[in-house]
Each structure stands twice: as structure tokens, then as C-alpha cells.
Amino acid sequence: PDGTPEPGPGLPPAARAAAMRLLAREPAGTPVWFAASRRSPGALALVDELRALFVEAGWTVRGVVAVDFPVRPGVFVFAADEAPPAFVEAARAGLEAAGLSPRPATGYRSYYAEMKRTQPGWNGFAFAAEQSFLIVVGQRERGGSGVTP
């Protein structure tokens, strides 16, 4: 009851602590954005757990989006630009320390624009003007953390 979020069932305490140590190195208020498919309760649960972890580490959650299309399995870190700010790598490293094996990609903003131009029905993640990256949690089993053994 001290206001500290309780660890979720997905991340083992040691992995959560390792991620916390890395994430807490960033300045308070560092921004983070999340997305998952509303079709995957397990993905939504992991986003909730990650949101709590980042907030506890001092980051500011600028957005959480539940999309209506399926997202392939995995955890992704989509950077808006080819040369993202250093805190994007810090977020990726924190996810790695948590055992989530995130897959990074840069230049997502231009990739999204090109895909929408050439394949109008394509589903992707629109970035806000000030958004530098997005952590996307793909399809997973309910309650599954995706933690690598």
C-alpha cells in the first residue's frame, strides 16, 4: 500500500530487478510508449506489467495503445528515426535484461509512411510527431511473459 506497483506474474523477480537497475539510470521523466493487440489478453497483461516497471523506474508513459489487428509474436522496439535518442537503446536494454529478447528496428516512421502509401490496407503503428519510439508486445498466451529461459 505504499503506491509501488506490484510485480506481475510474468516477469521473474530477478529479471524485473535487472531491468529496473538499467531503466532507472535514465533521467526521471524519460518518455516511453507501448502498444499491443487487444486480441491478445496475454500481450495486454505484459504491457500493463511493463508500464508499471517503467513508471517505477522513473519513466513517463506517454501512450498505451491497444490495436484491433493481430501483432506477430515477440517484443519489438520500433524507433521512429534511423538515429534514435540514447534512451531508446536504454529501453531495449531494459527489456533484454528482463529476458524478453526485444527485436529492434529503426526508421519506423518512414517505413510506416511508405507502407501506407504502397499498401493502403496495411496495418501498422502511426507515430505522434513527438514520439521517438514504441514498444510493441505481440501475440502471446494469457499470462505468458515471453521470458527467455
Overall mean pLDDT stands at 89
Low-confidence stretches: 1-8, 142-149
Question: What structural class is derived from the secondary structure elements?
Answer: alpha/beta
Number of β-strand runs: 5
Mass-distribution shape: globular
Radius of gyration: 15 Å
Termini, distance in Å? Answer: 31 Å
Q: In what order do the strands lie side by side in the largest sheet?
A: 2-1-5-3-4
**Helix count?**
4
Order of helices and strands: HEHEEHEHE
Helix content: 25-40%
Instruction: Say what oligomer this is.
Output: single chain
Beta-strand proportion:
15-25%
Largest sheet: 5 strands, mixed
Describe the structure.
This protein is an alpha/beta fold. It contains four helices and five strands. Strands 2-1-5-3-4 form a five-stranded mixed sheet, covered by helices on one side. Helix 1 packs antiparallel against helix 3. The longest helix has 16 residues. It starts with 12 loop residues before the first helix and ends in a 12-residue tail after the last strand.
Features:
single chain; 149 residues; alpha/beta; 34% helix
Quick description:
The chain has helices at about 15-25, 40-55, 85-95, 110-120; strands at about 30-35, 60-65, 75-80, 105, 135. The chain is an alpha/beta fold.
Helix-strand layout with pairing:
Layout lengths: L12 H11 L7 E7 L3 H16 L3 E8 L7 E5 L6 H12 L5 E3 L2 H11 L14 E5 L12
Parallel strand pairs: 1-2, 1-5, 3-4
Antiparallel strand pairs: 3-5
